[in-house]
Each structure stands twice: as C-alpha cells, then as structure tokens.
Amino acid sequence: VPGYGDSPPAEMVVTAQGRVAFLDHVLQELGMRRPVLVSPSMSGRFALPFLLARGDQLAGFVPIAPVGTKDYAAEQYRRVQTPTLILYGDRDTSLGPQALQSLWHLPRHRVAVVPDAGHACYLDKPEDFHRALLGFLRQLK
C-alpha cells in the first residue's frame, strides 16, 4: 500500500477519505464485484475506513489484527452489515485483542483465534489460518 514498506508516500492516501478512494479505485481497476477484503495489520488504515464507508460493496471482511480500530466509535461499527471474520493469533497479545475489542461491535462477526501464532498468524500457522478463512468463505453467499 502507498506509504508503507518501500513504496513512496502518496498525497492521495493522507486522509481516510483518500484511502477509501484509493482502495475503491484499485477494486474497480481489477474489475472486482463484491470481493472479500482480507486486511492484515497496517492495511487496516485502508480497509477500516472502506468498510465503514462502503461495506455494502463487500461480500465479506477479514481483519487480521488490523491497526486503526480504535479510530472509530462502537456506533460506527454497529452500522456495518458486512459479514466479518475477525482473525488473530493467540500469541498476538497487543493488536489482536485490541482489534477484537473494537471490532466486536460489528453485528455480523465471527472470531477465529489461530493457536500458537503471533501477529502474522497467516505466516506462523498457514494451515490453521487457511482453514479458518476457507470455512468463512464457504458460508458466504
């Protein structure tokens, strides 16, 4: 994502509104209709404002200990009707539980905790991670 890792900063993504527009543009360019948005860690800065503004465009949402969950109020989360799988590793004692505390307010959520996995639970325990993810995807319409 722009501004993270080795990618150059982009003026467009300085605001939450700009990040929503950026992600919307990416999805349109890819021709994606009602995708499931999987959002690990720092991508939460893009995915969360998109979920709150345009969650009806998503078939599902899978936050994996995303950052930025405390930036939004419980009431904002309660308005979202997107099916959500909240995922994190049980060894992630910081962002995982913190994200859960905020995302718990999403009305259509499930929680999957990957055992013996840290913050990057998809790298630590890929089979367990994929089992949880695929189980969630199968239940979507």
Features:
40% helix, 4 strands, 6 helices, alpha/beta
Number of domains: 1
Approximate shape: globular
Can you write the helix and strand succession as a string?
HEHEHEHEHH
Please state the second-level CATH architecture. 3-Layer(aba) Sandwich
Strand content: 15-25%
Largest sheet: 4 strands, parallel
Give the structural class: alpha/beta
CATH superfamily: Alpha/Beta hydrolase fold, catalytic domain
CATH C-level: Alpha Beta
Instruction: Give the fraction of residues assigned to helices.
Output: 40-55%
Distance between the termini: 29 Å
> Reading side by side through the largest sheet, how are the strands ordered?
1-2-3-4
Which segments are poorly predicted (pLDDT under 50) over 5 or more consecutive residues?
none
Determine Rg (CA atoms, Å). 14 Å
Keywords: Cytoplasm
GO cellular component, one term: cytoplasm
Subcellular location: Cytoplasm
Protein name: ABHEA protein
Report on this structure.
It is built from 6 helices and 4 strands, in the order αβαβαβαβαα. The protein is of the alpha/beta class. It has one domain: Rossmann fold. Helix 4 (95-103) links the parallel strand 3 and strand 4 (109-114). The longest helix has 14 residues, at 16-29.
